Amino acid sequence: MSQLANQVAVVTGAGRGIGRAIALKFGAEGADVVCISRTAENSEKVAQEVRATGRKAWAIALDVASAEAVTAAAEKILSEAGKVDILVNNAGVTRDGLLMRMSEADWDTVLDTNLKGAFLMTKAFTRPFIKQRSGRIINVASVIGLIGNAGQANYAASKAGLIGFTKSLARELASRGITANVIAPGFVETDMTSGLNEQLKAEVLKTIPLGQFGQPEDIAAAALYLATPAGRFVTGQVLTVDGGMVM
Q1: With CB atoms counted within 10 Å of each terminal CB, which end of the chain scores lower, N or C?
Q2: Which of 63, 89, 74 is nearest to 11 (CA)?
Q3: pLDDT per position as a tens digit, 75-117
């Protein structure tokens, strides 16, 4: 039996990489999926892939950092899908650079998308979750939010903030049957990491005890666990999927 039968999932950053893998995994397990990406082209492409599994899918182009746009999108989703059971906040960007040369715009762009975006999306669906006395919130952070990284002060701050945000959510919403957890991926092979040179990749590989890079499907498997009945008693946790980098 499909593990997510009769469930509706919203996945941000679904246009590629980890978000796409989660959307497809959820669809394969019986969920109808709302695929949110910054561009209509990417969101529609993944929605079509979900539909190919036999499930319903909606494609929404959205800047998650815009409160007005998020509110409108949430109303549209609830109207068309009827409900939402799972929210995956995966949308994220990087604007790397050493702090002394980092512009205020680069700081704001990363914090607005990675952290404020998760806040806005979660707030938009919290009341419906409370009303139905159920819901799964899964926030995708990063091991960088746990250990930091030179040249990524903005990214690390956004992901560390996401962890604290999620733990607070878990405490606020637990009495209503709603769980909130974080997945903290390590080095995963995606479009975002494909631009790194081979020397840097070799150095990173030395820090991973399992001796290999992760795949988007590894993160999708973790998200599936947290979304299914198997994860019903897990909340406020950070699940690191990193090959042992920060054990």
Answers
A1: N
A2: 89
A3: 999 999 999 999 999 999 999 999 999 999 999 999 999 999 9
Q: What ranges do the domains of the chain cover?
A: 8-239
- pLDDT per residue as tens digits for the range 136-194: 999 999 999 999 999 999 999 999 999 999 999 999 999 999 999 999 999 999 876 77
pTM of the model: 0.96
Would residue 155 show up in a list of annotated catalytic residues for this protein?
yes
**Tokens 């198997």 -> residue:** 230
DSSP the chain: --TTTT-EEEEETTTSHHHHHHHHHHHHTT-EEEEEESSHHHHHHHHHHHHTTT--EEEEE--TT-HHHHHHHHHHHHHHHS---EEEE---------GGG--HHHHHHHHIIIIIHHHHHHHHHHHHHHHHT-EEEEEE--THHHH--TT-HHHHHHHHHHHHHHHHHHHHHGGGTEEEEEEEE-SB-STTTTTS-HHHHHHHHTT-TT-S-B-HHHHHHHHHHHHSGGGTT--S-EEEESTTTT-
Q: Which CATH superfamily is domain 8-239 in?
A: NAD(P)-binding Rossmann-like Domain (3.40.50.720)
User: How many C-beta neighbours within 10 Å does residue 133 have?
Assistant: 10
Catalytic hit among 26, 125, 129, 155 = 155
CB 85 within 8 A of CB 135: yes
What's the pLDDT tens digit per position in 18-42?
Answer: 999 999 999 999 999 999 999 999 9
Token pair in block for residue 140: 């995708």
